[in-house]
Structure formats: structure tokens, C-alpha cells
Amino acid sequence: MKGGSYDDVMHRRVSGFVRTLILAAGICLAWIPPALAGPARQIEIKLPADVASETVFIRYRLDGEELGGWVQPRHGVSSYFISTTREGRSANRIKALLYAPGCALQTLDVVLAGSNSQQYIFTCQPLASVWIAGKLIRSDRLYGREVKLRASYVARWAQAFLGLRDDIVIDVPVGDAVDLQADGRFRMLVPDLSQDALAGAPDHPGALQIWARDRTSEDRVALLIPAGLPVTKRPIGGLRIQPEYPPEIVFAPCSANPPQVHDATGFALRPDPSGACDP
Predict the structure, then answer these.
(1) Residues pairing with 206 in the sheet
(2) What is the pTM of this model?
(3) Strand, helix or coil at 3?
(4) CB-CB neighbours of 243 under 10 Å
(5) Residues of the chain above pLDDT 90, percent
(6) Structural domains of the chain, ranges and CATH numbers in brackets
(7) Helix (H) / strand (E) containing 111
(8) Cα–Cα distance between 116 and 100 in angstroms, integer?
(9) What is the rounded end-to-end Cα distance, in angstroms, of the chain?
(10) Taking residues 259-264, what's their average pLDDT?
(11) SS3 assignment, position 159
(12) DSSP alpha helices (H): ranges in 1-107?
């Protein structure tokens, strides 16, 4: 037979048929109809060029969610993207609280229905800063841990805006971490939230908290409670929002997780009945 034996010819024909099937299968696997794949639904939050992306805070909630979520900060990005699809269901609305250092707080409330992707431009509205100078007493309540101090703004009005339960605390990190000096004194720069259209509004209750955090792990060690000044009720605690603060405020630590104390024989002792949170 021309072109080789009968077995050779059949081998070539079968091989060609198999190659054709493989090629066809490859094409089918690579092509997914848009209707089946489903378009990605998301919202893009564009950042100003002069705002460091890793310092931006975004707390959001899609309609239908119980807890909502946070945007994980990243260095060197110009936008953050939030998926608006959960478990195959597309949300119809997103609400968010946004903050960047040096800028006023912003809220976002966007109806998503009828669009696969939307965009929100974060425009920085400059906000001045104020100093807080403090002196820490009862440093024994830090239990010997090396700490640094960080401030946060507790937005007590944000639960209702986002549609979250009242027991979910929304705290926004503000200002840079500062060291505690050997004599217990410190100074930190925080935004002047009294001039913020949201935080300074009479119907938007909130407070400034100062936390002592473990220098290595960043875990919360103690909340600093101001002594001799009007403070918000527990469990929020902290300083009321003011345009300026006294030259020096005395603080006492309220331990977040006091270590378990044992006696010489190993039995656990009850905590001090005076309470670690009393200045």
C-alpha cells in the first residue's frame, strides 16, 4: 500500500483524530460565554495622589450583610476595589465610612442596581490637627509590657448609618503612634474632629480613645482613661471631642486583658476589687 502498511495508515488516522479532539476540547475549555461566566460587580474607590493608600480606613456594609467588612490597607495603590457580590447574590446598595490622615471623615451611600461596576472618588477635605499632652499614672497596670500609644476615633453614630448592631464598635485609627516617656508623659497630634462636618455634628456622638498597644505585637494592652475630665460612658470611655485640650491630662490605664495572678502555691487569685479601670 502507498504511504506505508495498513497498520501505519490506521495509526496516522487515529492520531490525527485524537489531535483534533484535543484541540477542540482546548478551545471549548478556554472560551466561556459571558452570560455563563457572569460579569464581576464591584465598586472602585479612587484615592487622591497625595494620600498614602496604606493609611486609608474604609469600613463598609453591603445590604443584606450582618457584619460588613473592612478594606485591607495596601501600599502604593491608587484605588481600592470592593466586590459587591456575595455568595452569588449581587448587592443593591453599599454604605461605607472612609478616613485618611489630614482629611475629614466621609460617608458613602451608593445604589448599585443596574450597573456592573461603579466608581467613587475620595476627595480629601483638609482638616487641622490639635495636640493632646498626657501623663500616665498607675503604670503598674501595664504589667511590665513595653507599649506605644495610638489614638482612635469611636464613631458611635456609624452603627446606625451602616445598619449594624449597637454592640459593634466602629473605631477609626487617627494620628501616628507615639512613645511613652520614662516619666509617663507623652504628646500626640490628632485631627481636630470638632471641625469635622460628621464627627463634630451634635447628633453624631463619638469620642477619642488612646490605647496602649504592645510594641511588638500591636495587641491592645490598656485603654487610657482620663482623670478629672468629662468622659463618655463605658465601655467606650475616652475623651470627648473638643477644639482644644488642657495643657496636660492625667490618664490611668484600664487593662484590656489583665494577666491571671497566682499565689505561691499556684492558686489563681481574684482580681483587685477596686477595679483596674478606676483612675
Answers:
(1) 155
(2) 0.77
(3) coil
(4) 11
(5) 62
(6) 37-121 (2.60.40), 129-255 (no CATH)
(7) strand 106-111
(8) 27
(9) 105
(10) 48
(11) helix
(12) 6-30, 34-37
